Amino acid sequence: MIFGLTLSVLLMPAVGLCAAESGHGEGSGESGTKGWVATDTYRVMNFVVLAVGLIILLRKPLSQVLKSRIAGIQDQLSELEGKKKKAEAELAEYNEKLAHLDKEADRIVTEYIKQGDEAKTKILKEAALAAQKLEEQAKKNIEHEFKLAKEKLQSEIFEKALAKAEDLIRDKITTEDQDKLVEEYLNKVVVR
Known about the structure:
Shape: rod-shaped
Number of strands: 0
Largest sheet: none
Radius of gyration: 67 Å
Helix content: over 70%
Number of domains: 2
Distance between the termini: 153 Å
Structural class: mainly alpha
């Protein structure tokens, strides 16, 4: 705003000079070709005095405006510098994290492999124990079935042998042998 005011004040004498010059040429045809006139000198002196007066009057406000603008720019620059340093620090931190990220990823993969191997070992142990238990149970079942089959076979053999013995006794025993057996039995029962 001050700049616009200053510019308009500086341009007013120039507009006045132009208006006077154009008025000069209209009245007589000779004055346009004349050269430098004494009034022109006064006009230029008037303009210089006015310009110097404006410079003197507006020097402090202009310098204050310029100083405040310079201070604002310096504040912005220092703020931007601080932001730049902060961004550089964050960038360095992220670069460091990225550098450690590979190591961290390797550590995590190694840890998962270790856990996988431990789980594998545990599962294999449990499977071996389960297989051993199944094998022992199968052996017990086989032994039990073998024992039952053996007892059944012995029982069948015993029954067949008994039947065969009965048949042999029936075929070979006589009535005298029967009477003798009955007497022995009675003697044993009665004597006791």
